[in-house]
Amino acid sequence: MTRIDKRKPEETRPMSAEAGVIKRADGSAVFRIGETIAYATVYGPRDLYPRFLQDPSKGILRVSYNMMPFSGSGDRVRPGGNRRSKEISMVTKKALEPVIDLGDFPNAVVDVFIELPQTDAGTRCAGICAASMALADAGIIMKDMVTAVSVGRVGKDVVVDLSYAEEDYDCPEGVADIPIAVLPRTGELTLLQCDGRLKREDLKKAIELSKDAVAKINDIQKKALKEKFKGESQ
After folding, report:
1. Tens digit of pLDDT for each residue in 83-93?
2. Most exposed among 111, 115, 149, 219, judged by the fewest C-beta atoms under 10 Å?
3. Tens-place pLDDT, residues 150-198
4. More reliable by pLDDT, 202 or 39
């Protein structure tokens, strides 16, 4: 098949990442894939207020996801919280929680803020990749990184890392977009959503097709963190 931007089915858009980009945060990172750019900052662990929300047995993770009003493809985004940003904040939180032992932070909160100044599809996946790096940059002990990528079907073809043009593609078979988040060492999925309809065998093929992309993204995440900490030690 020939994709709109000439990529192979298993090929992602160009990617890059950097850790420690926001100096006043406890941890931060930026992850870029294609024209989508996600910044993540981490503050904490710190005491949770008001006190009645505190849990003496464990801390909590809070995630805030926000696309800036003129961030890119599609309609202008309304400033402030909306239903979509709240939903993505929740699924991002669920995707990250399995790698953090919140029992280490009784009565505390770890806040993650994700901001997207520029977008072209794959925003929640880019946000998860950046947030995972920012948590590691903050010194939060993690069982693994969390790596995310969108997979899906465009027409009759199963592909990795859909662009906005592919998500918006008008064809009789329709388009299915599947954001997934993976723990690279074990292959465990911490996020699996589906926007659109597809057959079970297409879903299996999409997840299988994502494995090389997940490994590549994880290498980029780890390299960015190593470069940041290497620079600090010199």
Report:
1. 888 999 999 99
2. 219
3. 998 888 889 999 988 888 877 777 788 999 999 999 999 999 998 888 8
4. 39
The verdict on pTM exceeding 0.85 is: yes
Residue 63 identity: V
CA gap 94, 110 in Å, rounded = 14
Q: How sure is the predictor about 232, in pLDDT bands with cuts at 50, 70 and 90?
A: confident
CA 38 – CA 161 distance, rounded (Å): 15
Measured in degrees and rounded to the nearest 5, phi and psi for residue 200 equal -55, -40
Q: Before 106, cis peptide (omega within 30)? A: no
Q: Does domain 15-233 have CATH number 3.90.550.10?
A: no
How would DSSP label each residue in 139-207? T--BSS--EEEEEEEETTEEEES--HHHHT---TT-EEEEEEEEETTTTEEEEE--BS---HHHHHHHH
- For 16, residues 6+ apart whose C-beta sits below 8 A from its C-beta are 31, 32, 220
Token couple for 96: 């990250």
